[in-house]
Design a protein that fits this description.
This protein is α/β, with parallel strands linked by helices. The protein has one domain: Glutaredoxin (3-Layer(aba) Sandwich), CATH 3.40.30. It is built from 5 helices and 5 strands. Strands 1-3-2-4-5 form a 5-stranded mixed β-sheet, with helices on both faces. Helix 1 packs across helix 2.
Length: about 130
Amino acid sequence: MSPRFIFVSVALLALAWAIALPAAAAGRQPYDAAALAAAQAAGKSILVHVSAPWCPTCKAQKPILDKLAADPAFKDVVMFELDFDTGGEALRTLNARSQSTLIAFKGEKETGRSAGDTSTEGIEALLKTAL
């Protein structure tokens, strides 16, 4: 395969993801590097939740995130769930060192991050930085 073919294929994939994102924006979705890149390229508001199934703090954060995802003010925020136990390279790329980490982006720019916050007010404030 030629480099041009690969570039065009990746660009088309990113475009397809960007077109599909509005439908996927409601609620959380599993982390996918290509989907994150497409959302960033499209200038979307993004939240990455680094969580683990055994983490009590993560479990406390999830209902708050569900509530905020349903709030019309955050309807366009794309939320990704990144599993801390299997995240590997994604954790290194995002510099996420612990579970219960929340990372907000507006496009490619990180707008804020927190770890261990279980307050609705704190998580909502973090989300607002991405709008």
